[in-house]
Amino acid sequence: MLIVLVVIILAVSAVGLYIAVTWILALRRPDALEQLGVRGTYPRNSLPSSKIEAYCELKERLQRQYAKDNDSDTLWMANLPAQAKDMLKYRLMQRAIGDMAALQKIDCDARGYWRLFSKGIVPRKFWNSVMDAERDLSQELESVKAEAAGIEPTQDPQSIISDAMQFVLHYRDKLPQNPEGGTTADAIADLMQHLPPPGHPGHPLPPGHPGNPGMGPPFGEMPGQQAVQEIGGSTDTYSWRQDADELEVSVVVPNNANKKEVKVTIQSRLLRVEHSGAVLVEGQLAGVCCPEGSTWTLSKGRVVVSLEKADPRQWPTLLADKK
């Protein structure tokens, strides 16, 4: 009887092992992801093409009108009449908002696919295509900053990226996502409905902030109005955003960085991120986090830190001002 029982157990184990091995090998076939409804590569249609084209068409039209013989520099943009410059700023802000909506989608997808890739479920070809989409978007954001610098040479071109991010974070609950990858043109069009046109009366916000698309310096609030609170932001080395439960900090590192070179320190009121001994982010947090519930991951070109909030209150900034 004992021998029979042992034979049965061995037979069941062999069948289970066969099924497991067959499943793993099936997933590693080149067409396995397609059979499961997943494309072989990540879609490269994330950029807001219509907004990029609208900006470029307006820029070309204005150049023909105001600087027909100038094709070697961008100084002509800074010298445009006020109304023409405001419209160009508005189109560039639309383009930047579309970029940041795409960035939110790609960032979310990249974290999920990295976990699958690290476990051998997603092939390298697919993961490389995710990185290619991120690279396309990074180049597009650099182009936006270059255009902003041409329009307003005396202002920080990074501000348009920060303002576009704040806009998307403020209205992201109204932004449906395309399950096939990227953000649909219709979704971006719906998002743009919340962006008042240039010259819209009664703006409580400084140009460049979520309610006002210009890139000028702040002029303060109007009586009886209240500015939208900052719920995210960015610098040259990192960007951050938050919801009621956590803050996500994305820190730029070299594309070939590995985990051995990265050190992240998370305390209830302190965050420190280092790469190869160089401190990239360090400071006292503007709120309190729970270190035991906080994590960090390394993706290609960035360290993503998730800070669990000790309470759901909104943080005004990521790091407290140094005194």
Question: What does this entry look like structurally?
Answer:
The chain folds into 2 domains: 14-215, no CATH class; 230-323, Immunoglobulin-like. Helices cover 43% and strands 16% of the residues. The protein is built from 8 helices and 8 strands; from the N terminus they run ααααααααββββββββ. The chain has helices spanning 2-27, 32-35, 49-66, 75-78, 82-118, 124-151, 158-171, 185-192, and strands at residues 232-234, 238-242, 246-252, 262-267, 270-275, 278-284, 289-299, 302-309. It has a 5-stranded antiparallel beta sheet with strand order 1-2-3-8-7, with helices on one face. A 3-stranded antiparallel beta sheet has the order 4-5-6, with no helix packed on it. It is globular and about 60 Å long. The termini are far apart. Residues 17-28, 178-183 and 201-230 have low confidence and may be disordered.
At a glance:
The protein is α+β, with helices and mostly antiparallel strands. It has helices at 2-27, 32-35, 49-66, 75-78, 82-118, 124-151, 158-171, 185-192; strands at 232-234, 238-242, 246-252, 262-267, 270-275, 278-284, 289-299, 302-309.
